[in-house]
Design brief:
The protein is an alpha+beta fold. It has ten helices and twelve strands. The protein has helices spanning about 5-60, 65-70, 105-115, 145-180, 180-195, 210-260, 265-295, 310-325, 350-365, 420-430; strands at about 75-85, 90-95, 115-120, 125-130, 135-145, 305-310, 330-335, 345, 370-380, 380-390, 435-440, 445-455. It has a five-stranded antiparallel beta sheet with strand order 2-1-5-4-3, sandwiched between helices. It has a five-stranded mixed beta sheet with strand order 7-9-10-12-11. It has a two-stranded antiparallel ribbon with strand order 6-8.
């Protein structure tokens, strides 16, 4: 059963339940009203006839049906009247010339209540009234033929309206549900058509703000992310293949040249040194690619400890200075922290050190004077670490691409590199719920701002 039919049946079932309760209530209340109204009519009719009988009895010792009928004709269907004395013996009767067959009832209960109403097996309504002054029982019975016909007609009308309402509800709900879930059907069809070669097609989103359109908007946004991811993957694979092929091709050409030549020991040593340099270049590239791959699978963990970010930075700078003796680094606080909590960052020590190392290396390699100025600015929400150096600035139209793997700006084309350092740092910063930004300052100076949330 498809979703459209299921929703239509479900909605129709709800409407059917509501109509059933409503129509049953209407029928029940009308039947109760008819019964009470006819009981009152029977009781009134009996009291009127009894009054006539008492009046005639006061004038004559013998009263028969014809005497009463001349004054008041029978007004109800199958109307009959019985008058009993205190012992239950029949005194007077009025109605069809049939044997007396009034129902058995509890005389004591009638005397106590003064009135009793009941219905026999033929739906004749009976009213028993006790006359305490005369110590007599008045029994009046009649059949509500018109009332039962109306009740039967109401049954047919309610049944017909119920059936027609259900049919109309089923048709309207089927059409309405079909229109309501149309975006879902389009979504399903789009899913069937979507593959890595067809990610540009989108679902039409109406201006209405409802859940269906929200689903369509989210699906379109997901397709856009998938499209970007596939394009990034294609670019990534292409750039990776290119970066790996270049050193391998150089190594192959040098090896073939060495095999086809008769070098002396110094010549072969020169070839081997060149091969070693290319191999180190290849190892660095492989390590960078491996680090990117590993970082893509890491997410922030609440179990990570709080780290003193200034101590972590000092340790990384000290290690960097040992590996690059000609570098000049300077660290300073723009604002002194008021509390140690402003220096505490929840994170992974190895990842943060790797981020600092890449930022230092980036500032060192692309600096004109091998000088790196580092400053820290703290508050109760974030800590901002600035890495500043002197060198060629990145063009404005290239600044939004510096965190894309393998992208290298026009300002560094003459220097060796893979274009992977800043993407690695940016991913690590994202894992730690931080932000990395680049600013081009005056006088050919560059600034990288690293912002991380603190314990506060």
């Amino acid at each position: 059963m498809n979703l459209k039919l299921r929703f239509a049946l479900l909605f129709t079932s709800f409407v059917a339940a509501i109509l059933l309760v409503a129509f049953t209530s209407i029928y029940f209340f009308y039947a109760t009203y008819r019964e009470d109204d006819y009981y009152n009519r029977v009781q009134t009719e009996g009291n009127d006839l009894y009054g006539i009988y008492v009046n005639l009895k006061s004038k004559s010792s013998v009263v028969n049906q014809d005497d009463v009928m001349r004054i008041h004709r029978i007004a109800l269907v199958y109307e009959r009247l019985y008058l009993l004395d205190s012992t239950g013996s029949l005194i007077f009767s009025l109605g069809r010339n049939t044997p007396v067959d009034f129902p058995v009832f509890n005389f004591a209960q009638v005397r106590k209540m003064g009135l009793m109403r009941l219905t026999d097996k033929n739906n004749h309504q009976i009213v028993v009234t006790y006359k305490p002054n005369e110590r007599q029982y008045l029994i009046t019975t009649a059949y509500d033929r018109i009332g039962f016909k109306k009740l039967k007609t109401m049954q047919l009308i309610l049944a017909g309206v119920f059936g027609a309402s259900l049919l109309l509800t089923a048709i309207m709900s089927f059409l309405f549900v079909g229109q309501a879930i149309k975006p879902i059907v389009e979504l399903s069809n789009q899913m069937k058509r979507t593959n890595e070669l067809n990610l540009s097609e989108r679902i039409f989103v109406k201006p209405a703000k409802d859940e269906i359109n929200t689903i369509a908007q989210n699906f379109n946004a997901m397709l856009e992310r998938l499209k970007n991811a596939f394009e990034f993957r294609k670019s990534y694979v292409h750039q990776t293949s290119h970066e790996l092929r270049t050193p391998l091709a150089v190594m192959l050409s040098q090896t073939e040249a060495a095999l086809n030549s008769n070098y002396d020991a110094a010549g072969y040593r020169k070839v081997l040194m060149s091969l070693k340099e290319d191999q180190q270049h290849l190892i660095e590239l492989t390590n960078a690619l491996l680090l990117i791959s590993q970082n893509e699978q890491i997410e922030f963990m609440d179990e990570w400890p709080y780290l003193r970010i200034d101590e972590l930075l000092f340790d990384t700078v000290a290690y960097f200075n040992k590996n690059f003796p000609d570098v000049k680094t300077a660290i300073a606080f723009d604002t002194m922290p008021l509390d140690d909590a402003e220096l505490m960052v929840k994170g992974n020590e190895s990842l943060l050190k790797a981020a600092f190392m890449n930022l230092l290396k980036n500032a060192y390699l692309y600096s004109d004077d091998k000088t790196i100025n580092i400053s820290l600015n703290t508050n109760k929400q974030n800590i901002v670490i600035k890495f500043e150096n002197a060198g060629m600035q990145i063009d404005k139209d290239e600044q939004d691409k510096i965190f894309v793997p393998f992208f290298r700006g026009s300002n560094v084309q003459k220097k060796k590199g893979f274009g992977l350092g800043l993407p690695i740092v940016n991913r690590i910063v994202q894992i730690h719920k931080g932000k990395l930004d680049y600013q081009a300052l005056n006088k050919n100076r560059n600034l990288l701002l690293l912002q991380l949330p603190v314990k506060g």
